[in-house]
Amino acid sequence: MPAHEKAHAGAWRRPMNKPSAVAVRLRIARSRCASTIANLSMLALSAFTMTGMPHAHAQTSLGAYNVKLSETTVSGISSGAYMAVQFAVANSSIVKGVGAIAGGPYGCAQDDLETAYRGCMVGYPSYPTASPLVSTAQNWAASGAIDPTSNLANQKVWLFHGYNDGVVKTGVTNVLYSFYAAFDNAANIFYKDNLPAAHSQVTDSWGQACNVTGGDFVNNCGYDAAGQILQHLYGTLNPRNTGTLSGTIQQFDQGAFYSGTPASISMAQYGYAYVPASCAAQQPCRVHVAFHGCKQYADAIGSDYYAHAGYNEWADTNNLIVLYPQTIATTSLPTNPNGCWDWWGYNDSHYAQKSGAQIATVMAMVQHLAGNYSGWSGTPGGTFGAPTGLGADSSTTRVELHWTPVAGAASYAVYRASCAGCSPTKINTAPVNGPSFADSGLTAGTTYYYVVRAVDSTGTESTNSPTVAVTTAATPPACDPYYRTNYDHWYESRAYTDVFNVNIYAVGSNQWLGYTGPLSTTDNTLLRQTSSNYYVIGPCQ
């Protein structure tokens, strides 16, 4: 901190010198009952009614359907992203893909709240590194605590981070990419990081402005994250239903899937599932599990997440059941005042393993949903030929492709050209194991041309798919946001206090953030760093 600011910093008596070890521990303990960990996904309480959605039915038991267990996929936002990754890694024998919005690497917190809140959210004092987390996963797999990590080589992975997200920093999600890259083919991992989204569930039709941090943390960015996730994990789907949906949102008793009371593991009494009419009629179906973030549980915000996250519209036309398990806020043991999923160990030390209380409970729900499986294979019908339905997405240096699965295809081959009409070159170095592909190492603002071929069991390739032209996004503005309590801005050296120990100011800009005292641990401010030791209030443009 500049010397003139140190001279005026008086609050908490040691403005840029960190509190004593005892004070830090007291602060961390108090955070369990205040709202520090809330900032993982600080979702304001609001209760919007469902639009174009069927009403939830007061049903106390979850149905069983003709579901193929090995077609299960998962996704989540923030603490839900951490849980989705935990669930996908622990149960990799049945999970074929995972989507993570504003999340971090598997096992990041290492059973420690302070590590979770600082290192695994804003990289303070440093970001986590992937290699020890990779080793932990390998050791747990060897002991049988999680499924073999060799399964991860075939998982489809979709990652998202908005450049205005100051709750979970870009550097944390980058480590999640590195974690998966240690196990998976890079062609299976797409990372979308070029949108001005704040920390939020991103939609294309519902929510507040894209770069706003606050409200209910569901933001309209003109981007259908749910649809992009599902199509990267499953391949091109039928168009979503934009009208009245055919199915129902079923409320069910989560207590049926845990031996004790759900509240004893910070789960709500009731969860929800969207069941399309086709699945209710016992047609072949699949399951996608969508994990909400902190303070997004239904007891806090009603139907906002399970009605407006964007999954149900796609599920309705694609024989897909969406399971929305629910947490609840608990202030006694386990201490989880904001209803976060357990990604730091508030329930037990094996929270990231198959035996973790919440993971095992949600797994029991998924297994129950598959209770009427009739033995269908999931193999696409039709005849072997060129892929169709080629769709695409892009970020600054990456392109994602997805297509309709082809009958008789053992794998796929992807070809790229740099100009229209040019002869394309094969770019996959290993067989593409499903109907999506992530290309990386590209140039921003550049158009590329792709075709895809199906490959049969003998290695014979089909003719080309139709060509799709994809332009990578422009490089986004440099943005380094932090959405933290004012206490944390001070603790992490982005703010200082006046000589009277009353007011808190941003380092560099000297903008007023608020007052010291109890409010400093609950009031949140979005600061962005514009240069060394210089912070201003507000998002990047």
UniProtKB/TrEMBL annotation:
Would you say which domain of life the source belongs to? Bacteria
> Cross-referenced Gene3D superfamilies, in alphabetical order?
alpha/beta hydrolase, Immunoglobulins
Among InterPro entries, the record links this protein to:
AB_hydrolase_fold, FN3_dom, Fn3_SaeA_2nd, FN3_sf, Ig-like_fold
Under the heading Pfam families, the entry gives: Fn3_SaeA_3rd
Enumerate the SMART domains for this protein: FN3
| Domain Fibronectin type-III as annotated: residue spans | 386-478
The identity of this protein, by name, is Fibronectin type-III domain-containing protein
Query: What species does this protein belong to?
Result: Trinickia fusca
